[in-house]
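Deliverable D2.4 — example input (structure tokens):
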């Protein structure tokens, strides 16, 4: 099974109320139990936890244990018959991540599977015992430290009653009393050794894991120019999920901060992981700030007859219906000049994501004309889509439309600009979209899990009653990408298949106040076979 975090920015667009935990940070990284389990298992291997188990000083610890109590003399006599005792093999099996009954705490159960052997003059072969036990570690939020609250391993112990010892082979009846005594000494000895020898290793492994997560979110995201940088704001534990609340800031090309995207006073609903191993949720204002860096207001001049001759003829025909005299002024060098007044703003809805933009269009009859034939102010909308291209997350605009057109200036008679709506829409799609499409939002960050795989964009269902009773019964919409194409994902029904490289879907995001909706975006990972 595998997963890959193919982008830091988005996987689902959310814009209304969900009855889940709330957040107001610029971004949140949610780490589910699968991610925690995999990363901690890796760190335990890195710190040679099984080697530590094989090196447990069982014999010396048992002899020390036998010297205590009222029957110490008898126990010492028994231990003299044991001339060799050690763990011959050890394994840490599947870790379990569980919620704690304490607030802001997480329980990690670490099963141990060991084989120990001891030698005695009473038999010629080694007596082998199978030992199974379970270590319990508790992770909590340390809110007392200076700076952002971090996660610490607060307790580690061998759970009482989990130690089971059994013989791997049958033994002679005269050796059974010795085995019983050795077992009785192991029962208190092994948990103590685990706490003193293994728990420090678990502590170091968890510390390394947490630092790896922090390094992951602190990787600068190049925006060209400048970049986007996240850092830890606070830590939170919700059930069996670790939530890292992040601050965000925009940097210029000199790595100087140009915009602090601070904590918001508006609480947003946190969508559930819903089976995904992790998710990265980001407020929409952060995404819009990124888009503003990549697509600032700009100007574009198009020699219409040369670049788009068919549309030039259609434009002349449309103008002829308004004024034949004006149409006659148009020659083969007519120019269309676009000026985007503001950067595109994303608008989120149940049906998808749209980008709104203010555009000023000037039509010059010739390339030497000093005054435009007319000037139009256009409120345009287009479908916004995101897809991956190599190691880049790319923003794409499709199907731009002129929602409203206003005549700002006219060198001919006054006319209704709506008469030009169809041809203006065609020109916007053919000329303007080419320059805005393919903007690379960022380089993709590493995955919080180790193996590459297929991610998907996830649509959490709204928790409240649907405004449309029939819509609740419909399958969750998702958008499935078309690998290798630049036209973004295509609409599909249900969860993307294993062949998908990523997807995008929209759903309402929660806000605490009705007067200040602040949607956010979410990237969710999924394990696939």
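Example output (designed residues):
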């Amino acid at each position: 099974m595998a997963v890959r975090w193919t982008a830091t920015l988005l996987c689902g667009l959310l814009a209304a109320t969900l009855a889940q935990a709330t957040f107001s940070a610029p971004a949140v990284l949610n780490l589910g139990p699968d991610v925690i389990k995999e990363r901690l298992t890796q760190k335990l291997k890195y710190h040679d936890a099984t080697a530590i188990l094989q090196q447990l000083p069982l014999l010396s610890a048992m002899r020390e244990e036998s010297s205590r109590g009222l029957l110490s003399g008898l126990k010492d006599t028994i231990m003299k018959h044991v001339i060799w005792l050690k763990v011959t093999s050890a394994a840490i099996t599947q870790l379990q991540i569980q919620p704690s009954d304490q607030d802001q705490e997480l329980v990690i159960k670490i099963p141990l599977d060991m084989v120990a052997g001891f030698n005695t003059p009473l038999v010629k072969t080694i007596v082998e015992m199978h030992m199974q036990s379970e270590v319990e570690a508790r992770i909590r939020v340390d809110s007392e430290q200076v700076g952002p609250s971090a996660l610490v391993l607060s307790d580690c112990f061998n759970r009482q009653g989990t130690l089971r010892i059994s013989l791997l082979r049958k033994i002679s009846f005269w050796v059974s009393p010795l085995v019983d005594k050795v077992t009785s000494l192991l029962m208190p000895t092994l948990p103590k050794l685990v706490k003193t020898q293994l728990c420090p290793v678990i502590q170091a492994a968890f510390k390394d894991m947490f630092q790896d997560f922090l390094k992951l979110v602190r990787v600068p995201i190049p925006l060209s120019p400048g970049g986007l940088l996240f850092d830890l704001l606070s830590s939170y534990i919700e059930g069996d999920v670790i939530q890292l609340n992040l601050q965000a800031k925009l940097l210029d090309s000199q790595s100087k901060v140009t915009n602090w995207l601070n904590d918001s006073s508006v609480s947003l609903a946190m969508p559930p992981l819903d089976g995904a191993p992790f998710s990265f949720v980001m407020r929409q204002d952060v995404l819009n700030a990124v888009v503003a860096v990549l697509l600032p207001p700009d100007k574009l001049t198009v020699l219409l007859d040369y670049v788009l001759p068919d549309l030039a003829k259609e434009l002349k025909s449309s103008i002829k219906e308004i004024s034949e005299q004006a149409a006659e002024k148009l020659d083969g060098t007519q120019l269309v000049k676009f000026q985007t007044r503001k950067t595109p703003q994303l608008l989120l809805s149940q049906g998808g994501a749209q980008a709104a933009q203010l555009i000023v269009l000037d039509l010059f009859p010739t390339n030497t004309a000093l005054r435009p034939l007319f000037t139009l102010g256009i409120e345009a909308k287009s479908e916004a889509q995101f897809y991956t291209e190599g190691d880049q997350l790319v923003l794409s605009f499709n199907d731009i439309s002129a929602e409203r057109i206003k005549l700002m200036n006219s060198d001919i008679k006054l006319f209704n600009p709506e008469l030009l709506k169809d041809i203006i829409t065609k020109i916007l799609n053919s000329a303007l979209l080419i320059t805005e499409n393919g903007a690379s939002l960022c380089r993709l960050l590493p995955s919080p899990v180790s193996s590459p795989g297929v991610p998907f964009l996830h649509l959490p269902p709204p928790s409240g009653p649907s405004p449309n009773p029939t819509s609740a019964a419909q399958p969750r919409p998702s958008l499935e990408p078309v690998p290798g194409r630049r036209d973004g994902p295509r609409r599909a029904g249900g969860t993307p298949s294993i062949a998908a490289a990523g997807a995008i879907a929209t759903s309402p995001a929660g806000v605490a106040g009705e007067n200040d909706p602040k949607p956010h975006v979410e990237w969710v990972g999924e394990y696939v076979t």
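Residues 295-439 form a domain with the Bactericidal permeability-increasing protein; domain 2 fold (CATH 3.15.20.10).
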